[in-house]
Model the fold of this input.
Amino acid sequence: MTRFGSLAWKFALIAAVALALTALPGADHALDMVLTALTIAFLAAIAFLGYRMYSRFQFELDSLPDRNRAVLYGSIGLVLLSLAATSRLFDVGGAGVIVWLALLAASAYGAYWVYARYRAYE
Done:
C-alpha cells in the first residue's frame, strides 16, 4: 500500500466514524459518553503526572522557602479552580473568557516567579 493509500484509508475511517456518530439515532448520547470518558482519562493522566512530579521533586519542593511554596501551591490551586469553573465562566460570555484567561495567566506567572527564584543564585 502506498503512503497516499494508507493516508486515504485512515482519513476514510475517521470520516466513517464521524458520519456514524452524527447520522445514527441515539449517537449523540454515545458521543457524549465517549467524550466524558476521554475527559476523565485526560484529567486522570494529569493527576497522575502531578503525583509523579511531586514524588520526583519532593526534596526540591520541601527546600523552597515558605513564601515561594505558598505561591506555587496557590498557583496550582488557581489552575484547578479555573478548570472547575470553566463552564460557568464561559456561560457568562466574553467577560468570563477574559477572566478565565486572566486567572490562568496569573497562575502561570506565579509558577514562573517561583521557578525564577528557585534558579536565582543568592
User: Anything to note?
Assistant: The first helix runs from residue 3 to 23. Residues 36 and 42 are 10 Å apart (CA to CA). The chain has six helices and no strands.
